[in-house]
Input
Amino acid sequence: QKEVEQDPGPLSVPEGAIVSLNCTYSNSAFQYFMWYRQYSRKGPELLMYTYSSGNKEDGRFTAQVDKSSKYISLFIRDSQPSDSATYLCAMSADDYKLSFGAGTTVTVRA
Amino acid sequence: GAVVSQHPSRVICKSGTSVKIECRSLDFQATTMFWYRQFPKQSLMLMATSNEGSKATYEQGVEKDKFLINHASLTLSTLTVTSAHPEDSSFYICSARSSGKNIQYFGAGTRLSVL
Output
């Protein structure tokens, strides 16, 4: 069993739809949770950072962390074609080493 | 803020030569830098962790004599792929973590092709 599970998709949605992404994990020591966006042939770009459980909102993006269920989510409202990318969840304990999900490829259709 | 610059973005070299990749944190001091490798349609694989002024810590299965890492200052780390072989062709990405924060900021990556 992988430490972080993420459905690789692909996920295709029409423009304006809500994109819902999620990851599950097994390591209860994880406290820091991140979502990165990666365009083809580019490095990952940090979208959201959450410490411990809770919700965080930034513009069209909302991140949720439920440590009791070991489940994290990312929601993208009013999706745009420019949101088409691979979304990676990542998390770490106090050792700062990131464990990544497999990444979900998202396509937003115009 | 939190910009990480990685150079070169693309390099093509002959088998047997060495290639150096630079990773710089432009607007913060990076206590720790990380080097990853990414294969097509796969997630990032951590190769090594480097702390300024000390030897890098390599992940299991990564040859430290082949992938030389130097972290000489709080803003610069280099990865040298020595005696490159075609199987070393890949996408290499660095990241940097600022002191006091558990967030890694990534460079744009380097695509290495060994002929």
